[in-house]
Amino acid sequence: MNIFLIIFGVIVAIVILLIVGLITASKRIKKNNKKARLEMELANPLPKEKQHLLAYGANLSLYRCDSPRILPVKEDNESLKEVLASYWDVSNPEEAAETLEWLLTEGHRAKYDQLLIALKAGQSFTEEEVGKSQECYESAQEAMMKKLSFAKSDFDRLNNIAAWDFDRAVNVARWSYILGYITEEQAWSYIERAADAASHFFQSWKDYFISYAFGRAIAYEGDIYDILWNGKELLNEKDSIWNEFSIKRSGTGSQ
Q: DUF1266 domain spans which residues (predicted)?
């Protein structure tokens, strides 16, 4: 019996050490990522009005460990070219312009906004009808309530996944400029259109994050756990870009 207790105690101690080690490593990685982002921001400064525009692409920027305050990214051009070609079918100026126009004028919201409204109303669908979208939607809502302390009422006014399209438009414009598919002037024009549209659609950054998360869950049929920590940083940390700038283009300050 004593041997059993000793073995059990050793196992518990090892598990605790592993958990502590993982938490410590996670914090160290996050700290190093923030330091690297700050160094890039200092080397590539932008005026506040342009940082405000880039705030609408902050979800995907942070997901890729890039700074949401500047145009450059940490990834080398060849790897970025592969990302655009593989995931976006963008390999030249014409395809970049076509994809950006689609994101800004139609995007996934044209197909999935009605599904979101139906799911919010309690309608049920078979997997044959909507794939895993309903399961992912329910999982996303539960995850945001559990990990970000959102209340059910936080989802009430959201009837679109537009942030999923606008956030990605900002980043596709950014990447397309870096690779020379569009000019810097064109990139800022696309980014500003995304920002203006988002400013019209949403009343708060929380709404914007929820819309983005539901877009990822429904259109991409993806688990949102890997974007929750970015959402937590953007919404809760005092020095985050979302807590510096308003969701509305007309002013600054957190919303």
A: 84-244
